[in-house]
């Protein structure tokens, strides 16, 4: 199966954010914004992307029918923390101290103090800002080598969300399989981690659960986390609707699912044809539905831009495909952590009544770092030079799905082990052999006479099966130079 994408080789110069016009002078400058970031949800999990999906996703499918579905959206990284850094800062995380891998539960703050974020920008324009869910960007200042100076959860958790632009935070420190297992409200634990839990014996489909052993709060239960953060998100919207209806709000809702442990509540067990993972993804769809219903109940839908996407591809093995006949990453090669498309091509759905045309499909190449510049253009404010370094506004594409010019010159992707890829038009260059992530082979030593990297034409070969590195040296050279330029100048937007 091939995705209906249309790509062309682009010029080497990039449009500036300020030069992009939205084509609609009636765009509200202060809509409510809800950004929902699923954790490890694949491109092929949603019915609107994959008619053969074994997972019911009626709410997300409804959202697509009422808005726009992008077919060529990407996370900047194939794993959690660096993508979240990119979402909130508009900057590739490899420009920070995090050159590979992810943070841990006791890691110190990754977002630099004083750095402009999506939340701080919106707060300056009168928005009430809230983050509910999985943070995974660290707390407190400390030694960059986190194990030498870990976060002390008995002390004030600053810097953190409330010092980076959020008025309110409720969530967990890192992934649901990483200790400490606690809830944090604003800058303090709701309940201290005074007990210990052993690591789960269940692995993947044989029980669905996997978590590391470590400190846990007495009343913390993994199965309760998704319902709790969903309810807290609903309450955030309700509170703003009732107490400050004159103020717009921004809700960043980074879900804890369907990342491991796969722990759907009892009412969702057996609701999919893709095991515990599928059932948990069905519960994710329920969470999205709760947000949609709350917006409806408070007459907020018409003036709310809501986005649902994922931080990277699904952690879905070949044996999972064979067992359930479900392709979580559709036809894409690889999975979470990989530099191949399955690692970072993601679902991306946006609804904004009156601005985004119902039921539209957009083949523009976009990146999650683009939220920053998009917010800036919605607010009619240019970004500072030292903010959103890798962010391009997608507002022109949102309000005009027939836009015939690419809004991005290129995107850079990063795997779990730090392998780079750069994409321009149809051409994608990977600086290395192997997946760079979870799939085998992770790394490959090049032979003396063989290719040193990978080059694919995604128009002709969306599944990345035909390496053209040796046959197309001109594209290898062009893309290598462009990546070097982005790295040297410390930004990719002009």
Give a verbal description of the structure.
The protein has about 500 residues and is of the alpha/beta class. The chain folds into two domains: about 30-410, Alkaline Phosphatase, subunit A (3-Layer(aba) Sandwich); about 415-490, Arylsulfatase, C-terminal domain (2-Layer Sandwich). Helix content is about 20%, strand content about 15%. It has ten helices and 16 strands. It has helices spanning about 60-65, 80-90, 120-125, 225-245, 275-295, 320-325, 340-345, 370-380, 395-400, 475-490, and strands at about 30-40, 70-75, 130-135, 170, 185, 190, 195, 215, 250-255, 305-310, 345-350, 360-365, 410-415, 420-425, 425-430, 455. The strands form three sheets. The protein has a ten-stranded mixed sheet, sandwiched between helices. Strands 13-14-15-16 form a four-stranded antiparallel sheet, covered by helices on one side. A hairpin with a 2-residue loop joins strand 14 (about 420-425) and strand 15. Helix 4 packs parallel to helix 5. The two termini are about 35 Å apart. The model is unreliable at about 1-25 (pLDDT under 50).
Descriptive keywords:
494 residues, alpha/beta, Arylsulfatase, C-terminal domain, 2 domains, four-stranded antiparallel beta sheet, 10 helices, 16 strands, 16% strand, disordered N terminus
Write the layout of secondary structure elements.
Layout: E1 32-38, H1 58-65, E2 68-74, H2 80-89, H3 118-124, E3 128-134, E4 168-172, E5 184-185, E6 188-189, E7 195-197, E8 214-216, H4 225-243, E9 249-254, H5 275-297, E10 304-310, H6 318-324, H7 341-344, E11 345-351, E12 360-367, H8 371-378, H9 395-399, E13 411-414, E14 420-424, E15 427-430, E16 454-457, H10 473-489
Parallel strand pairs: 1-9, 1-10, 2-12, 3-4, 3-9
Antiparallel strand pairs: 2-11, 4-5, 5-6, 7-8, 10-11, 13-14, 14-15, 15-16
Helix pairs in contact: 4-5
């Amino acid at each position: 199966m091939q995705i209906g994408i249309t790509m062309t080789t682009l010029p080497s110069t990039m449009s500036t954010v300020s030069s992009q016009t939205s084509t609609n002078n009636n765009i509200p400058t202060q809509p409510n914004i809800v950004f929902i970031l699923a954790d490890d949800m694949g491109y092929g999990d949603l019915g609107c992307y994959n008619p053969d999906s074994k997972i019911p996703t009626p709410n997300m499918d409804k959202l697509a029918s009422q808005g726009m579905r992008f077919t060529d959206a990407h996370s900047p990284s194939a794993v959690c923390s660096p993508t979240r850094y990119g979402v909130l800062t508009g900057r590739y995380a490899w420009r920070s101290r995090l050159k590979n891998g992810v943070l841990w539960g006791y890691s110190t703050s990754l977002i630099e103090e004083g750095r402009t974020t999506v939340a701080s920008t919106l707060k300056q324009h009168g928005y009430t800002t809230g983050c509910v869910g999985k943070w995974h960007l660290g707390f407190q200042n400390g030694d960059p080598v986190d194990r030498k100076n870990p976060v002390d959860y008995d002390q004030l958790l600053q810097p953190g969300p409330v010092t980076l632009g959020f008025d309110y935070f409720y969530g967990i420190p890192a992934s649901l399989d990483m200790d400490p297992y606690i809830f944090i409200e604003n800058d303090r634990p709701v309940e201290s981690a005074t007990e210990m839990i052993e690591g789960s014996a269940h692995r993947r489909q044989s029980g669905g659960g996997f978590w590391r052993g470590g400190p846990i709060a007495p009343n913390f239960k993994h199965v309760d986390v998704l319902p709790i953060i969903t309810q807290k998100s609903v309450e955030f919207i309700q509170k703003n609707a009732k107490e400050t209806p004159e103020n717009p709000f921004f809700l960043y809702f980074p879900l804890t699912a369907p990342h491991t442990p796969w722990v759907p509540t009892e009412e969702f067990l057996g609701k999919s044809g893709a095991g515990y993972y599928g059932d948990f993804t069905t519960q994710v769809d329920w969470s999205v539905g709760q947000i949609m219903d709350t917006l409806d109940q408070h007459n907020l839908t018409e003036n709310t831009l809501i986005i649902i996407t994922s931080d990277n591809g699904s952690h879905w093995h070949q044996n999972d495909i064979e067992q359930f006949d479900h392709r979580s990453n559709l036809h894409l090669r690889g999975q979470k952590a990989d530099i191949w498309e399955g690692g970072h091509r993601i679902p991306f759905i946006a609804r904004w009544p009156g601005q985004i045309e119902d039921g539209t499909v957009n083949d523009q190449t976009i990146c999650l770092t683009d939220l920053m510049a998009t917010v800036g253009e919605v607010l009619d404010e240019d970004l500072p030079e030292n903010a959103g370094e890798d962010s391009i506004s997608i507002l022109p594409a949102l309000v005009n799905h027939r836009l015939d010019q690419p809004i991005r010159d290129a995107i850079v992707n990063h795997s779990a082990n730090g392998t780079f890829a750069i994409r321009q038009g149809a051409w994608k260059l990977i600086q290395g052999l192997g997946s760079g992530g979870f799939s085998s082979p992770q790394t490959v030593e090049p032979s003396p006479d063989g290719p040193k990297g990978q080059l694919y034409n995604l128009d002709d070969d969306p599944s990345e099966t035909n390496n053209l590195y040796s046959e197309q040296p001109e594209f290898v050279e062009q893309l290598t130079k462009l990546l070097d330029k982005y790295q040297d100048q410390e930004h990719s937007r002009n």
